[in-house]
TrEMBL record:
Keywords from the named record: Elongation factor, Protein biosynthesis
NCBIfam families recorded: PRK00529.1, PRK04542.1, yeiP
SUPFAM superfamilies hit by this protein: Nucleic acid-binding proteins (SSF50249), Translation proteins SH3-like domain (SSF50104)
GO molecular function, one term: translation elongation factor activity
Residue ranges of domain Elongation factor P C-terminal in the record: 132-187
Keyword Protein biosynthesis included in the entry's annotation: yes
Species, as recorded: Marinobacter segnicrescens
InterPro entries (UniProt xref): Elong-fact-P_C, NA-bd_OB-fold, Rib_uL2_dom2, Transl_elong_fac_P/YeiP, Transl_elong_KOW-like, Transl_elong_p-like_YeiP, Transl_elong_P/YeiP_cen, Transl_elong_P/YeiP_CS
One GO process term, biological-process aspect: peptide biosynthetic process
Protein known as: Elongation factor P-like protein
CDD domains: S1_EF-P_repeat_1, S1_EF-P_repeat_2
Family label: Belongs to the elongation factor P family.
């Protein structure tokens, strides 16, 4: 059982009978108080997506959840159900649109490095690679010599995500996106 001070972002913990993903951790050291640091964690329930903010002392013991990550690829969508196929044993996992709405902005049929997260053999969430390559569906025309300035313009990708790109990028280009920051990294 790890202490609260050993928990990292994106780890899963069991707390009060539920399993939560730790999405954000703030460490604070109270002034003039004996004892250690306090860790304020923003957590999301893996099943319902409900947000929970909780503060732990650095010595509090937390249970790490037993989650399984399986490599998968997007297969097809059936209404509000999105089906992913295990890359190794071809098992199909269905996830509801609401549970993975943010992740869908980064996924196409050829996105590599997607992991389905299983809790007790049931799919509960997706884990995305740090970067993805996506084609631009629509953006303003490229400006010749636009790479000399740092100005940007909005570009809508085929998944519906809108990111700021440099002026020299044009419609149809494949670009690399940082998933966590939702930022343009370069041409793919």
């Amino acid at each position: 059982m790890p202490k609260a001070s050993e928990i990292k972002k994106n780890q899963a913990i069991e707390y009060e009978g539920s399993v939560y993903f730790v999405k954000d951790i703030e460490r604070s050291v109270p002034q003039g108080r004996a004892g250690g640091s306090l860790y304020r964690m923003r957590m999301y329930d893996v099943v319902t997506g409900a947000k929970l903010d909780e503060t732990f002392k650095d010595s509090d013991m937390l249970n790490q959840a037993d989650l399984v990550r399986r490599p998968a690829t997007f297969s097809y969508s059936d209404g509000d159900e999105f089906v992913f196929m295990d890359s190794e044993d071809y098992t199909q996992y269905s996830l509801n649109r609401e549970a993975i709405a943010d992740e869908l902005l980064f996924i196409t049929e050829d996105t590599q490095g997607v992991m389905v997260i299983l809790l007790n053999d049931a799919p509960v969430a997706l884990d995305l690679p740090p970067t993805v390559d996506l084609p631009i569906e629509e953006t303003d025309p490229s400006i010749k010599g636009g790479s000399a300035t740092a100005r940007t313009k909005p570009a809508r990708l085929t998944t519906g995500l809108v990111v700021q790109v440099p002026e020299h990028i044009s419609t149809g280009d494949r670009i690399r996106i940082n998933v966590e920051e939702r930022k343009f990294l370069g041409r793919a």
